[in-house]
Amino acid sequence: MNGLFSSLSRPNRYVVSVILLNLFSLGIGGILIGAFLPMMRADYGLNYSVSGFLVSAFNIGTIVSGLIAGFLPIFFGRKHSFLVLSLTEAIGFALMLLTRQPAVLFLAFLIAGMARGAGTNYGNSVANELSSDNSSLLNLINAMFALGALVCPFLLLGCNQFGPHGWKLAAVFAAVLGLLSTLSMVPMQLGDAPAQSGSPDFGFLRDRLFWITVALVFSYMCVESSIIGWIVSFFSDTGVTSESFSLLLNGLLWLAILLGRFLCTGLSARMTTARLLLILTLGMIVFFALLLVTHSVPLMILATLGFGLSVSGMYATGLGNGGRVFNRYPVALGFFMMFSGLGGIFFPSIVGTVADLTNIRTGMLLLFLPLALQLIFVLINWNLSKRD
């Protein structure tokens, strides 16, 4: 980490520090959505289908924000665009506490998701610029999201000690932290991306690497968004664990993801992104299968750890896979987030609908479909990387 920061100027070190705080805040907020969903569902009288649409709304906000984040700096500058879009985390969580009406909750989740889209877009684009295509800084930044996600279940458990509506206190904490993260952006010196001015160049739409990267990350996002939204419900509603232990397992998942992202930071410097993507994908399939078939708590812990390690570096490594395209075409990252994130919109709702008709375990079984597609696209990427 010292090596990463020592090569940066003082203003750039502050920018990276702000991005790290922002991703930490988004990690808490993003995972809180799935962690307190069973409690919100019970408090507000929501079924699986409505809950699934709320998770999808969060992902819609992420995608919409990720797309417009690529264009707003042309008119308002990157710093102002980042600051305004980041403020939506505080607004969204505050709005969740005001009503139980599904329409308003849909809007609240959508607004909260916009902050994550902005943080992902600007954070990763700045990291790409400062790291010269080395994915180490990308993995470090995304590790801060995992750190926030790791803190989230314990934050919720602590808030639950204050009463039956502890999830609302956790939502207040997320709103305040999101506001502080936004305020920290005011003094930072963040210039616009290279070639940001003028008419956008859409040449990336003809680039094969762009579409391969979109396809494999699209498949991954189907899995990631569904896991984030439903994993606590899966752990508790299957009856294998209690609600409190389900939150601890969720914390264990994100501990594994955090450690895995630091591990991937080192591995990405020692092997090609194509090989790392293949290893991570195979691990996801094996450990997710174990997670679904086991009714044993020790095996569930093992599966959770293995899946967390496997999923840890997929997104950052996927971004690194298309780094050449994203650096050449400044607006490409927004379109990448839109196309690849579509899976995060539809799949959590599909899982919730099937869970309403059958049970949560059957709904989660559907995730083997995008996992199979992910493996196919990763193999295509592996084959093409050997030719180039």
What would the average pLDDT be, to the nearest integer?
85
Fraction of helical residues: over 70%
Beta-strand level of the residues, as a percent range?
under 5%
- How many helix segments? 19
Could you write a compact summary of the structure shown?
The protein has 388 residues and is mainly α. Helix content is 81%, strand content 0%.
Describe the structure.
Helices cover 81% and strands 0% of the residues. The mean pLDDT is 85. The protein has 388 residues and is mainly α. Helix 7 runs antiparallel to helix 10, helix 8 runs antiparallel to helix 9 and helix 13 runs antiparallel to helix 14. 54% of the residues are buried.
Give the secondary structure arrangement, pairings included.
Elements: H1 2-6, H2 10-35, H3 37-44, H4 48-68, H5 72-76, H6 78-86, H7 88-96, H8 102-131, H9 136-160, H10 166-183, H11 208-237, H12 243-267, H13 273-293, H14 297-311, H15 314-321, H16 323-328, H17 332-357, H18 360-365, H19 368-387
Keywords:
single chain; 388 residues; 19 helices; mainly alpha; 81% helix; 0% strand
